[in-house]
Specification:
alpha/beta; binds zinc ion; 2 domains; eight-stranded mixed beta sheet; elongated; Glucose Oxidase, domain 1
């Protein structure tokens, strides 16, 4: 081909791409996402074949290998594993039984809290003190608490429309309750599951023993059985609870963040990260929390590659390891980025479930926030309208040190805590269309951020 025509052809091709209006590109992103089932199949594999993938487990490593391959298949320019130190905790057996002269014996549905110590091999049997706050615990003091099992039974505040605020108002019973009770000599702790649901699925989650405090065994009880225990205590305040937990902490071990990258065309040293966490609670398939966020992030890579949308900045999909227990995956990612002097322009986290997409929250203010909120107009045709101020998420939070814009992907949130951290968080609870809409939203937002650079 003569040199001139080659030049002309290249010129025409470039003009054609540049002439593509953002709304056409966004439409093509949604069309592709809403008609492709790759992400849904990934979700099924991760939830069904790597169930139990707590940090430090063999299942977590299977999920690492699976998503590494999924990122290669999605067309990422490079894929690698980043070593992360993680805790190794195993659940073992768990049993709780009410023993009452009034109402006889009754078994309760419980789940040990993550990182909890176990009871003695034969279990422990003790009286139960029900409390609703740390103040109430302090008022009762050592005299009433020593040797007893403390039962934290403050429900989630159902009047709060923001279910995350409701969760946040109750979760300290789980994270700090065992430490607080231990200060007064409690033998163990039972926590009402931190959920809006009224059912028989206990919701686990991590507990954190404060430094210098004797760790005591701790488990969550289903909301239904929390009601039964509370009623039984009203009838017979002297009832006993037999508790057996054989959970155990082992030495820390090694796992991995999984990272797939598309090289930026003109600013390859600047990064936009999109991610979810690959680990999930061992009593759960972890579909909404957070295999969904992971497969959506892989899908972002696939969408860019499939549609030939080449971002100026490099785009990374990250499957963070160990969000649920000690957050080492997010910290490792930021530490390595800092070490290499990378510029991280923005990061989006998808860790609020896989319901219908609603919008994004931005950790920004003033004029910058206004500009970011103005991007909502591109999402009008897709019923995605909630562009508000707010945080990103715990895995991307360590990137704040690098001045990274923090963005949270926000789906509909009324049902999320029904599933969260429980055996009820299954693949079947995810709607394929809502999953696809989330991937498309994040890909579209990254595309717009990359163009406008707000
Ligand atoms: Zn999560």
């Amino acid at each position: 081909m003569p040199r001139l025509s080659l030049f002309l052809l290249t010129f025409l091709l470039v003009s054609q791409t540049e002439a593509q209006q953002p709304d056409a590109v966004i439409r093509s992103i949604f069309n592709e996402a809403l008609t492709d089932t790759t992400a849904y199949h990934h979700l099924r594999y991760i939830t069904k074949k790597t169930r139990g993938r707590i940090p430090g487990s063999r299942e977590a490593l299977l999920a690492v290998e699976y998503t590494r391959q999924a990122l290669i298949d999605a067309g990422a320019d490079t894929v690698w594993l980043q070593e992360v130190t993680v805790p190794h905790w195993e659940r073992g057996e768990e049993k709780a039984m009410i023993i009452s002269d009034e109402s006889g014996m009754r078994e309760l549905t419980i789940a040990a809290l993550g990182l909890s110590v176990g009871t003695a091999q034969e279990g422990l049997t003790a009286g139960v003190v029900e409390v609703h706050s740390f103040d109430e615990l302090a008022r009762l003091g050592k005299e009433k608490i020593e040797g007893k099992i403390v039962f934290f039974n403050r429900p989630v505040d159902n009047t709060l429309i923001n279910t995350f605020a409701g969760y946040g108002g109750a979760v300290n019973q789980r994270t700090q309750g065992p430490s607080e009770a231990s200060r007064y000599g409690a033998a163990a702790v039972i926590v009402r599951s931190v959920t809006h649901a009224l059912n028989d699925f206990p919701h686990t989650g991590v507990t954190r023993y404060a430094a210098g405090i004797k760790p005591i065994p701790a488990a969550a009880v289903s909301t239904m059985d929390a009601g039964i225990l509370s009623e039984a205590l009203k009838r017979d305040p002297d009832l006993k609870l037999h508790l057996l937990l054989t959970c155990k902490n082992y030495p820390d071990t090694i796992s991995y963040n999984v990272i797939g990258e598309i090289y930026g065309s003109s600013r390859p040293g600047e990064y936009i990260t999109v991610g979810g966490h690959l680990d999930a609670w061992d009593n759960s398939e972890g579909a909404h929390d957070d295999a969904g966020g992971c497969v959506q992030s892989i899908e972002v890579i696939r969408l860019f590659k499939k549609l030939g949308v080449r971002p100026r900045r490099s785009v990374r999909a990250v499957m963070f390891m160990n969000e649920e227990m000690t957050g080492t995956g997010g910290r490792e990612y930021a530490a390595r980025a800092m070490e290499r002097g990378e510029v991280h322009y923005a990061a989006i986290e998808s860790d609020r479930g896989v319901m219908a997409p609603r919008g994004f929250t931005f950790d920004a203010s003033g004029e910058r926030l206004m500009k970011l909120k103005s991007l909502a107009e591109w999402f009008e045709p897709y019923n995605i309208r909630d562009f508000d101020q707010g945080g990103g998420g715990s895995d991307i939070a360590p990137l704040k040190q690098l001045g990274t814009l923090q963005i949270g992907y926000i789906p509909e949130i009324q049902r999320y805590f029904w599933y969260h951290h429980s055996a009820n968080d299954t693949f079947e609870q995810v709607n394929i269309r809502e999953l696809q809409g989330g991937s498309a939203s994040m890909a579209a937002l990254i595309y717009l951020l990359d163009i406008y650079g707000y």
